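Hi F.,

I've been meaning to write this up properly since the lab meeting, where we talked about keeping a consistent format for the predictions we share between groups. The idea is simple: the sequence comes first, exactly as it goes in, then the structure tokens exactly as they come out, then a line or two of notes. No screenshots and no reformatting. I'm using this chain as the first example so we have something concrete to point to.
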Amino acid sequence: MFFASVLYLLFGGNIVAQSYELVTVTGVYSGNETDDTLFKANSTTIPSLAYIRAQRIAGPQDGVFTQSGDNIRYTAISKITGIPGNLSKIRFSFLQSDKRSLIPPNNFRFVINDIDGPNNEALATNCSANVRFVGTANPTNLKIDNTPPDLNAVGTVDENEGATSRVMFEFKSISIVEFDNYANDGYLKDFDLDDDYPIATPLFVECLTNFMDHIDIENQEYQKIDFSMEFKTIDGKLIINTNPIYFDRDEYNIREDAVIELEKVLKIMNKYPEIIIELQSHTDSRASDAYNIELSENRAKASVDWIINKGIDPTRITGKGFGETQLVNKCSNGVKCSEAEHQLNRRTEFIVLNPEVLKQ
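Output, unedited:
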């Protein structure tokens, strides 16, 4: 969800930059000029890193990846002009030499050059995705919104290769990064991981934490706002605020990227020992209805078993498979879709069945 108003919390000197790993993109292995590209990469401090997979994982708009020097370039293909309609969601996965296994979690800094505006370009990431801060130049031509669930950087003026429209996103302990990319047709962003685009005098912005005092600078008005990042509401259901767990086609084993999300669920269940969770698992539309129901039941059971094996009382968690009955996009039977679009339907979500206990 894009923000309605912008809150500035720009400050310098209060965040000491953590160590982050430098990564160099050395070539394209497969999928050049598509929305699912495998780049060759290396890092002197991460021996296991061999590839970065760049994907457009959701729309409504599209885009393609190419190499630009030692950076990854994403060029928007958008039928709609202006924020928020020109959105495409993209993901970077840091992989080992088998092109599939994630590397162990590490610290990374993405620097993105030339976020133009007004109402042309923006970049956002979820506050719960281990983002440490956003940095931008002082002075800057970007607007920053740090109100959860997202940390946003938005262009305000047209600028060609200028430092004041440059932004860095720094992450800790991750092996997958996702961004909401807002851009008009033909607009490009270069994602740099080896500090090609330094910011000489950066200002740093963190996501707001729970229950922050919001200050209206113009009117000097104060109000208490709940910025809880632990839960979200979708269609009237209270859901643990994680990324959905995804599965490979025809599989129900827990992937390494799924463990990251399951650990978030485990943390929430330990923090709130009275909540009861239902895992709802889904498939894409390929294969028969009966097969997909059975597959989704197996996926739900695999996720439930993982959490129970970590010490959660089995009476607090159940699983249910919905097969292909609740698709999140157009990819129903007979509709031609990309693998990335089908992937969005192979998911597990975490529903709180007794939200009233959180209000006590």
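Notes:
Residues 289-308 form the longest helix (20 residues).
Residues 1-17, 210-227 have pLDDT under 50 and may be disordered.

If this format works for you, I'll send the rest the same way.

G.
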